[in-house]
Design brief:
- This protein is of the alpha/beta class.
- It has a single domain, classed as Glycosidases (TIM Barrel), CATH 3.20.20.80.
- The protein has 20 helices and 11 strands.
- It has an 8-stranded parallel barrel with strand order 1-2-4-7-8-9-10-11, surrounded by 6 helices.
- A hairpin with a 5-residue loop joins strand 5 and strand 6.
- Helix 15 packs antiparallel against helix 17.
- The chain is globular and about 65 Å long.
- It starts with a helix and ends with a helix.
- About 50% of the residues are buried.
Length: about 550
């Protein structure tokens, strides 16, 4: 039996096999798990906001609670920013949502005044209940650096006493060096090389994500889950490849089989991406093509339409994982809320915006956190424009390319390229993006035919075709997200302006981002000041 077929047999998971294994594992463990799950499933979420109450959420890494004490952190965020909802970073191997301030950035005026460069590890910062992971490929993924500290066990009960909601905030970031068997879930690039990212079509990784959701929602009185997958498909990777070095995935056995089932000529997709990769590398180092950059790029797409088909396959696969996370949580407790993070590229790339259709995502989400980081958007968008100006928009001056993007994305009177990195984007950008997102999720012309058939919502969660599903848009507000030397830094006025812009545009809530462990208290307090100016109770 070849490895691929054996893997498929090993990861097939049905409810009957799960029940059978648990029975064999021991009646006591099973009874405990079922009893706890039944109790949590039966309860209604008691910390739901009152009608008209605004959600003020913040993203917090586990280390902050360990460093400053659970009640110390909760006092700070409640008193300074009126926070009533916690996004507790529960699983990640990345420093974007976990860990203290990243090395090279100034330490904030709270928490331990030292970096965790030599201690940061990552993983699951909650207690791991083994009965939920018997059929998963990863076994040793408990984060070790905080000892026995259980971020959900210690934080959720204390938050609940204060009337604060708690969400499990987890990220699609792994460390291949720290996870045994990661090679069995790794994406494979167009040249057959394994990468450091996990394939979202791999049944091992899907099963692991579902097991995490089961564990947290059955073991703790959480109010919901929110998953962050800051990734994009292979075509988008090519378009904004830094220095022309694109990671073009995935062509593992699972993706190849799926592509063939969907009628895609896999060999032509691979050939097209290799040609596109060669073109991008040449665009960075060689003279302008005879017919120009954009014409050459478009000619490759016309010649190899399979490139677009593979981009859609990758994006649809990501959305299928959204659906499975949503379906799992709702089957455990229909009162749980499920949300997803939409990365900052939504503000930079019309190509990425086109494939991240909120009208589709809303079918398996209760809320979306949209990155509207107007401060760090300055240097980030500058880098993005300089990158695409070196490939598809090489025919235009870079400042003109930025103006085109402003028009395509619906922005108004934003900084020119020469000043963008130091000024950032305005609060008007936050207002416009919030209005657009709310309008998109409320639009009635949902292309139901475009939804993947891979996910079927459980009974009671299905939507009538063409009828918008209620979904909340929570803008992500930038507070001290790291930028480079000489680039835009967050000021209290920036936070006040962004918070007011989000609520004035009709947002039912906001999420203070990226993580509490890098926020200055004066900027955190500015969020609370904005709420008071708006007349929102804190």
């Amino acid at each position: 039996m070849d490895e691929n077929k054996e893997d498929k047999l090993n990861v097939e998971l049905t409810e009957s096999s799960r029940r059978g294994f648990l029975k064999a594992a021991g009646i006591t463990s099973l009874a405990t798990g079922i009893g706890r799950a039944a109790e949590l499933s039966a309860r209604k979420v008691e910390t739901q906001p009152k009608p008209g109450e605004k959600v003020i959420a913040i993203q917090l890494p586990a280390v902050s609670f360990s460093d400053e004490g659970v009640n110390g952190v909760l006092d700070t965020v409640q008193q300074r920013a009126g926070v009533n909802t916690l996004l507790i970073a529960t699983f990640s191997y990345g420093r974007g949502i976990e860990g203290r301030q990243i090395p090279g950035q100034p330490l904030p005026d709270h928490g331990k005044q030292e970096y965790d460069t030599h201690t940061f590890h990552g993983g699951d910062y909650a207690a791991v209940h083994s009965e939920y992971y018997q059929d998963t490929i990863f076994k040793d993924f408990r984060a070790p650096e905080l000892g026995d500290f259980d971020v959900l066990g210690d934080v959720v009960p204390n938050a609940k006493k204060r009337g604060m909601k708690s969400y499990c905030w987890f990220e699609d970031v792994y460390n291949p060096r720290l996870l045994d068997n990661f090679e069995k879930v790794a994406e494979v690039d167009v040249y057959g090389r394994k990468t450091g990212s996990a394939c979202l079509n791999n049944p091992y990784i899907r099963n692991f994500l579902i097991s995490l959701v089961e564990d947290w929602t059955k073991s703790y009185e959480v109010d919901g889950v929110m998953w962050c997958s800051e990734r994009q498909g292979p075509l988008n990777h090519v378009i904004d490849a830094r220095r022309g070095r694109a990671t073009i995935t995935c062509f593992c056995n699972y993706c190849v089989d799926k592509g063939r089932r969907e009628g895609i000529n896999v060999e032509r997709a691979q050939q097209g991406f290799r040609i596109l990769d060669q073109w991008v590398r040449a665009a960075w180092s060689q003279a302008r093509p005879t017919d120009g950059y954009f014409v050459t790029f478009w000619r490759i797409l016309v010649e190899y339409p399979e490139i677009l088909a593979w981009e859609k396959l990758w994006t649809d696969s990501q959305h299928e994982v959204y659906g499975r996370i949503y379906g799992t949580a709702k089957s455990i407790n229909p009162h749980l809320e499920v949300g997803f993070h939409v990365m900052h590229h939504m503000s930079f790339s019309p190509f990425y915006r086109a494939v991240q259709d909120y009208r589709k995502i809303r079918q398996h989400a209760d809320l979306l956190k949209i990155c509207m980081y107007n401060n760090c958007a300055g240097p980030r968008l500058t880098e993005y424009i300089n990158t695409v100006h070196s490939t598809i928009w090489g025919d235009l001056p870079a400042d003109l390319a930025l103006d085109v993007y402003y028009k395509l994305l619906g922005y108004n009177e934003e900084a020119p390229l020469s000043k963008l990195a130091t000024t950032g984007l305005s609060s008007d950008y936050v207002y416009r993006e919030t209005k657009r997102a709310i309008a998109d999720v409320q639009a009635a012309n949902l292309p139901i035919a475009g939804l993947s058939s891979d996910y079927i919502a459980p009974e009671g969660q299905r939507n009538v075709a063409g009828v918008p599903k209620e979904i909340a848009i929570y803008p992500g507000i930038d507070i001290d997200i790291p930028t480079g030397k000489g680039e835009k830094k967050t000021q209290p006025s920036d936070v006040r302006g962004a918070v007011k812009a989000a609520f004035n545009a009709g947002a039912p809530g906001i999420i203070l981002s990226r993580k509490y462990s890098e926020m200055k208290l004066v900027n955190l307090s500015a969020a609370g000041e904005a709420l008071k100016e708006l007349g929102i109770p804190v």
